[in-house]
Amino acid sequence: MSDVVETMLVAVTVACVVANVFIVVADLSRAGFVLANSAEVGLRPEILPYLAALKGAGTLGLLIGLTGIAPLGFAAATGLVLFYLCAVGAHVRASVFHNIAFPMLFLALAGGAVTHFALVAG
User: Fold this and answer.
1) Per-residue model confidence as pLDDT tens digits over 17-66
2) Is the pLDDT of residue 1 over 70?
3) In terms of CB atoms within 10 Å, which of 61, 70, 81, 88 comes out highest?
4) Any idea where the domains of the chain sit in the sequence?
């Protein structure tokens, strides 16, 4: 793997961590945009702490993976990919397309992290 590709994949993985830290804080603080989006796709506000815990666990796994335990990073990134596939699916199911770019961005970042850890661990 070239140094440029490796650097870009690490940058995408770090961006995934930063984005997920942001959304975990937003979920836990019950930010207005989170509550509005959740209502649009049919999720009750009571579920937000559980979703934040899943995203937080994935983020922690990415951080541990970046410290050298690549298989854990791969597992965490895979979990985040599955999580955000479900989020995109919830938007599609509810026909909420005006802001579907956000879960798709998170999905793309998680996909980049999977790629990074697959190449590092493989």
Assistant:
1) 999 999 999 999 999 999 999 999 999 999 999 999 999 999 999 999 99
2) no
3) 61
4) 3-121
Phi then psi for residue 76, to 5 deg, are -65, -45
Contacts of 109 (CB under 8 A, 6+ apart): 12, 15, 16, 19
- What are the structure tokens assigned to 16, written together? 């995934």
pTM summary value? 0.95
Q: Extract the tokens encoding 85.
A: 């596939």
First-residue to last-residue Cα distance in the chain: 11
Token digits of residue 29 = 């603080």
Instruction: Please check whether residue 25 is in contact with residue 53, taking contact to mean a CB–CB distance below 8 angstroms.
Output: no
Answer whether 106's CB lies under 8 Å from 114's CB.
no
Q: 């994935």: which residue's tokens?
A: 58
Structure tokens, 36: 């509005």
Q: Which two tokens stand for residue 69?
A: 């335990």
